[in-house]
Amino acid sequence: MLGLPAAVLLVSLAGQFDINGAVTVEGRAGEAPLTTDGKVEAGVAGLVMPDLQLTYLSRTTDARIDYAVRIFWRKPNEASSLKPVILHMVNLGASSQATPRLLLTANGALSAGEADYTALGVVLPNQPALPSVVDFLSVTGTVGAQEALSRRAKLGLNLSVIHREPLGATADLPPQAGALLFPHQTTGIAEPTYRYNLSRRDDLTVTSPVSYGRYSGGFEILLASPQVGWQHRLTRRYTLRLAAGVAYVHVVPSLQTQSPVSPVGEIGVDMQLAGHGGLLTRGAAGARLDYFVDPVLGTAGPRASLSLGVTSILNPDWLVGAEATYATVFTGRNPQIVLVDPQGMPVTSAADGVAVPVDETLIAAVLLARCRVSDHLTTEFGFRYSDRAPSVEVSAFGFHQRQLWLYGSFTANTRRPTSRMVK
Q1: Residue 168: which H helix or E strand, with range?
Q2: What is the bridge-based pairing of β-strands 337-340 and 354-357?
């Protein structure tokens, strides 16, 4: 039996380890609210994020783990302080071709610390209703396996877990009437998939994700969403995606939502265009109807979304891109509300404030240009925009949480990135 030193030596000989350090510095100017339902205020912001990454590459295995610290400062800010908010992040990923037919994957992310209102959209992706500045813990993890049953058929299974909770002073905040707090959430997800190659141009997919989660307020939500999809390659450059299915949700205690059964589906087009002089353009557009579980509000309902994205590689050193998304959730005719005073701050009594519908609609857009100055320096500049509104079902519908930033950033790294590095 091999001892630990011998095992480590064999692993080292079989593959290659690499260490890369990087630091990103970003500056912003624009406007954004300080808090949920707060007034939009103009200001400036700065970000410094050092990152240390260890990778391992072999003939069959790619693995990565990195640790980063996000140090963010904004003027003005909710705390009226010069102190930055600091967020610690650990990410890992691995893939291994265990056998010629079996592919194993694993991904995980841990975030702990503070995030201001403008950064919570990254912590809670595609989330319309956001809390204010928080101290929190977020852990996500996924393991997967994909087996090639034949030259045409593949069977897969992904198992995921999500855990989020407030920390420190954020965890001690009382459950005020309607105030939006960072969620307590523990969710498990199982997603079996089956893919069959019908022809050179057609693929059939069957997925049946099932999730069960516990959320703030004592809500328990079970969601099952089986779907059948079809992918057809129209030409060498264009691919059509279609999917249709049904979603079933069970909420305890019951909420005033629409029917627990709802259709789900998707239609989309992917394209890849080659041009002159090394120009390569990739794009995707789609419309989707799914069932969205909101961890902040503890609700669930049908969500309609539109997306459009285009990326062009102009030459080996330049990349430009644009992306836009729109989504709105339908949770019934009596959406949850938050109570705020005339300054937009949450209050504990209906007698002290007015009722404002919570946000269930999100629109966002990004324009960027990225340049690789050298093997060790990359710069990026562009424009970020987002806004939020209640559900389109609400008579008080209107966008009111505008974020609009012009930004520029520089990233310096110690070693040229490896193309096979796990994304």
Answers
A1: helix 168-171
A2: antiparallel
User: Whole-angstrom Cα distance, residue 233 to residue 241?
Assistant: 9
**Residue 12 confidence class, pLDDT cut points 50, 70, 90:** very low
- Whether the pLDDT of residue 340 is over 60: the answer is no
Q: How far apart are CA 176 and CA 4, in angstroms?
A: 54
Q: Which of 55, 63, 156 is nearest to 103 (CA)?
A: 156
The 3 state secondary structure assigned to 288-313 is EEEEEEECCCCEEEEEEEEEEEEEEE
Give 165-175 pLDDT, tens digit per residue. Answer: 998 877 676 65
Q: Is 298 left (phi over 0), alpha (psi -120 to 50) or beta?
A: left
| 3-class secondary-structure state, position 119 | helix
Q: What is the pLDDT of residues 220-233, one digit of tens each?
A: 999 999 999 999 99
What one-character DSSP code corresponds to residue 415? Answer: S
Q: Which helix (H) or strand (E) holds 6?
A: helix 4-14
- How far is Cα 412 from Cα 80, in angstroms, rounded to an integer? 31
Question: Shortest CA distance to 338 belongs to which of 351, 357, 352?
Answer: 357
Domains, the chain: 15-413 (2.40.170)
The b/e string for 118-135 (b: 16+ C-beta within 10 A; e otherwise) is bbbbebbeebbbbbbbbb
* DSSP state letter for 12: H
pLDDT reading at 339 higher than 70: no
Question: How many Å apart are CA 156 and CA 158, to the nearest integer?
Answer: 7
Residue 275, burial from CB neighbour count under 10 angstroms (0-12, 13-18, 19+)? exposed
Numbers of helices and strands, H then E, in the chain = 3, 22
Whether 91 contacts 102, CB under 8 Å: no
- Comparing CA positions, the residue from 95, 94, 88, 93 lying closest to residue 67 is 88
Q: CA–CA separation, 314 vs 282, rounded Å? A: 12
Measured between alpha carbons, how far is 35 from 37 in angstroms, rounded to an integer? 6
- Eight-state DSSP code of residue 218: G
Q: Answer yes or no: are the C-beta atoms of 388 and 404 closer than 8 Å.
A: no
Beta-sheet strands, E only, within 59-84: 61-75
Distance between CA atoms of residues 94 and 105, nearest Å: 6
Token pair 């989020």 is at which residue? 164
